[in-house]
Amino acid sequence: MGTFVVPLEVADPEGRQFETVEAMVDSGATYTTLPTSILERLGVVPHSVRRFVLADGSRVERGFGRTWMRLDGSEDISPVVFWDDGVQPLLGAVTLEIFSLGIDPVNERLIPVDAFLLATNSAY
Question: Whole-prediction pTM value?
Answer without folding.
Answer: 0.90
